[in-house]
Amino acid sequence: MTEQLDPRIHVDAAHLRALATRARGISFLPAQPSKSILNGQHASKLKGRGLNFEELRHYSVGDDVRTIDWKVTARTGEPYVRVYTEERDHSVLLIVDQRMSMFFGSKHNMKSVTAAEAAALAAQAIHAKADRVGGIVFNDTEMTELRPKANAKALSQFIATLAKANCALHAKGPSIDTMSLNEPLKAACRLAKTNGQVLIFSDFDGMNEQTFKLLRTLSQKNDVILFSISDPFSKALPEGIEIVVSDGEIQGLLKTNEAQTRMKLLEFTTGRLAELMTFAHKFGLPVLPLTCSQDTLPQLLKLLGKRQGPK
To answer: What pLDDT does residue 269 have?
Structure first.
């Protein structure tokens, strides 16, 4: 008998696939509703679907004279036109953080669940528009790279990889040196093509100056959208609780009933988001803030200026 998962803590592939019907209408392309957080907030690199050269053929009555290839016409002595077809898809790369720093939630969901659901919703909405979907799913020790493709198999592989990483998280995991966010960003710089999109779902734990340089590199030729996943605990630490913290080797106990300790913790957690927002504003990268204290889909729809449809 298969063990029943609590979807607030772990999500399997079936749960993530079931979000597909609710992903309809979600879009991260430049054309956005007036209330969308993406509307006018950044200079998109996506200029609409371009044109690919298909073939040369003889001119026929009714052809647009602007498509005549005058060099070929002059060389052959007969009128030829250049035939173009519209690009069929965009390439979208989704980077999803499933490290131990994401395996936390003081209310409703784990951050890792919110990130997985948001990424699954995005992937299925993108696939429904016949765009190519790929991903980089990473935890503290492993990173899986999936090149963007437009077929259903690629989407299924992404969903399965995401579910596997999410279900592998557990509170009794060993204390280890966590993978830096910079590693999947370096991989994204290799995989992401010009005029594509890169969506990043993370709490941005451990970001540094190199993180910002890599984000800047990615954003020079692609649309980069940051999904910042947070927990209300990081904004208002309750008094009278004890928190065990570790750097991978040494553990320590922090007591939030001590005012100075609580203040330093709040400065650390809120300072990280403030630093990310400052960078994003400077370089025109949109940030979509998601909290794990609420259902994922309504948050996405609200941020994108859309109404929630039937469940």
So the answer is: 61
